[in-house]
Amino acid sequence: MHFEWDRAKAESNLRRMSANDMKAKRTNVVAQMRAEYAFDYSKAVRGRCYKRLLKEGSNVVVLDRDIAKAFPDSASANKALRAG
Predict the structure, then answer these.
(1) Using CB atoms within 10 A of its CB, is residue 77 exposed (0-12), middle (13-18) or buried (19+)?
(2) Which of 13, 15, 17 is nearest to 5 (CA)?
(3) What is the rounded distance in angstroms from the CA atom of residue 71 to the CA atom of residue 66?
(4) Burial 5-43 (b: 16+ CB within 10 A, else e)
(5) CA end-to-end span of the chain, whole Å?
(6) Which of 57, 58, 67, 82 could form a disulfide with 63 if both were Cys (CB 3.0 to 4.6 A apart)?
(7) Could you tell me the pLDDT band of residue 5, with boundaries at 50, 70 and 90?
(8) At a CB cut-off of 8 Å and minimum separation 6, what does 71 contact?
(9) Which residues, 6+ apart, have CB-to-CB distance to 77 below 8 Å?
(10) pLDDT of 47 above 60
């Protein structure tokens, strides 16, 4: 697949877009969000769990793509690891 970038076309597209267009799209997406996804970031605390993670450690393991395809969820991965 090959794509060519056309500077004139890109500049034309940018001129047609306005800041208001961008805000309207974002507002619409936020309005469509479910209530359980609403989060008040003004009450967020940065690094709230940082000290606990340093003390207890993390148990996150990143699998290679080919291995991850064999396990649709963590339960199946755990079952396979415990079977050995």
Answers:
(1) middle
(2) 13
(3) 10
(4) eeeeeeeeeeeeeeeeeeeeeeeeeeeeeeeeeeeeeee
(5) 43
(6) 67
(7) confident
(8) 63, 77, 80
(9) 63, 71
(10) yes
CA distance linking residue 16 with residue 9, whole number of Å: 11
pLDDT score for 41: 82
* Residue 20 Cα distances to 16, 23, 28, 33, 50, angstroms: 11, 5, 12, 20, 38
DSSP, collapsed to helix, strand or coil, labels residue 2 as coil
Answering whether pTM is above 0.85, one says no
Question: Which of these, 52, 74, 53, 54, lies nearest to 63 by C-alpha position?
Answer: 74
Phi, psi of 72 (to 5 degrees): -70, -20
